[in-house]
Specification:
One of its GO terms (biological process) is aromatic amino acid family biosynthetic process. It is an enzyme of class 2 (transferase). Its EC number is 2.7.1.71. There is one protein chain. The chain has about 180 residues and is an alpha/beta fold. The chain has one domain (about 5-170): Rossmann fold (3-Layer(aba) Sandwich), CATH 3.40.50.300. Helix content is about 50%, strand content about 10%. It has eight helices and five strands, in the order E-H-E-H-H-H-E-H-E-H-H-E-H. It has helices spanning about 15-25, 35-40, 45-50, 55-70, 90-95, 105-115, 130-145, 160-170, and strands at about 5-10, 30, 75-80, 100, 150-155. The chain has a five-stranded parallel beta sheet with strand order 2-3-1-4-5, sandwiched between helices. Helix 2 packs across helix 4 (about 55-70) and helix 6 (about 105-115) packs across helix 7 (about 130-145). It is globular, with a radius of gyration of 16 Å.
């Protein structure tokens, strides 16, 4: 398996923030799959959703994912919240990377996203006061995909300090400093 680490989880779970910290710790490259999709499509994600719909976005996402995981060299990849749930992406991720599910309760996600993050996300933009309910429902639907990750991580405080030993215990990454 290539030494890629993929972070899975709901919007607001900390994939990008923790991914950058892990990449810095391991001295690896960090890549946000949403940024890769934007670069390839030449459009922001809300514009892709508005002009072409979610199905088109999910196809672009699957293509970008397959291109990214085929790259040589170690990297930490922050996936989109729905990435594992479409186009057999969970199997692509598990075959090509070490998958880590950042399992954060819906109530914590809602608190984080209420600070402005929901408005930037097409599938959450209209949730308004129902944000916590919407997140809980989405998490319940996605859990069967997320639970296929190689490692599930539930710590929401001091995550890097707690995550490094969990990764080492799970055998990732072989030979990398912890």
């Amino acid at each position: 398996m290539p030494p890629h680490l993929s972070l899975l989880g709901m919007p607001g779970s900390g994939k990008s923030t923790l991914g950058r910290a892990l990449a810095q710790h391991f001295n690896w490259r960090f890549l946000d799959l949403d940024a890769e999709i934007v670069a390839r499509a030449g459009q922001a994600i809300p514009a892709i959703f508005a002009e072409h719909g979610e199905a088109h976005f999910r196809q672009l996402e699957a293509e970008a994912l397959r291109a990214v995981v085929a790259r040589p060299g170690p990297l930490v990849l922050a996936t989109g919240g729905g990435t594992p749930c479409f186009h057999d992406n969970i199997n692509v991720l598990n075959t090509s990377t070490f998958t880590l599910w950042l399992d954060v309760p819906a109530a914590v996600l809602a608190r984080r996203l209420e600070r402005g993050g929901a408005a930037r996300r097409p599938l959450l933009a209209g949730a308004g006061p129902q944000l916590a309910t919407s997140l809980a429902e989405t998490l319940a639907a996605r859990e069967r995909f997320y639970s296929q990750a190689r490692l599930r991580f539930t710590e929401t405080r001091a995550p890097l300090v707690a995550l490094l030993p969990a990764l080492a215990h799970a055998g990732f990454p072989a030979g990398a400093p912890v």
